[in-house]
Write a structure and sequence with these properties.
By secondary structure, the chain is mainly alpha-helical. It folds into two domains: about 100 residues, no CATH class; about 30 residues, no CATH class. It is about 45% helix and about 5% strand. The chain contains six helices and two strands. A two-stranded antiparallel ribbon has the order 1-2. Helix 4 packs antiparallel against helix 5. The longest helix is centred in the middle third of the chain and has 20 residues. It starts with 6 loop residues before the first helix and ends with a helix.
């Protein structure tokens, strides 16, 4: 079993995977490498590895695992899948497409238009700095916000 997908995930989409092998053969020979390939292709714009609830990473991993196991067996059949995977990777890397989680949240890559870093504490002054340690203090606004949140 991989981080994102299982043999059953591939078999549900591509039942002919059974011709290549069962869960043990496909799981050890193709799934971890397909997941690593997806991670590698997207690591330049996303933090990897992805969580197991990332539907886009799962979708791509299923297709890539199938491609890895069948590219030499039936190149004409897999070409549309190759084109789809290439298009998705290109769109994700360029920001034209976002990743989607099982809860429907969208994840933007670092180069995506409109993607910004966000933190619940980004509006407060940092506690640490270049001054003496004794001078480090928590932003009073943060203290008030935390007290009001209780």
């Amino acid at each position: 079993m991989g981080r994102y997908i299982t043999w059953a995930d591939i078999a549900a989409r591509y039942p002919e995977i059974a011709k290549v092998g069962g869960s043990v053969e496909v799981g050890s020979a193709h799934i971890p490498f397909a997941e690593a390939e997806v991670d590698g292709l997207l690591a330049g714009v996303y933090t990897t590895p992805f969580s197991s609830n990332n539907l886009t990473a799962r979708d791509l991993s299923i297709d890539v695992a199938y491609l890895r196991s069948n590219a030499l067996r039936d190149p004409d059949r897999v070409q549309p899948i190759v084109d789809r995977v290439d298009r998705m990777i290109t769109d994700l890397r360029s920001g034209r497409m976002s990743m989607v989680t099982a809860s429907g949240d969208t994840l933007y890559g670092s180069g995506a238009p409109g993607a910004t870093m966000w933190s619940t504490t980004m509006g407060y002054h940092p506690v640490f700095g270049a001054d003496e340690t004794e001078m480090f203090t928590v932003d009073s606004a943060q203290i008030l916000d935390e007290e009001n949140a209780r």
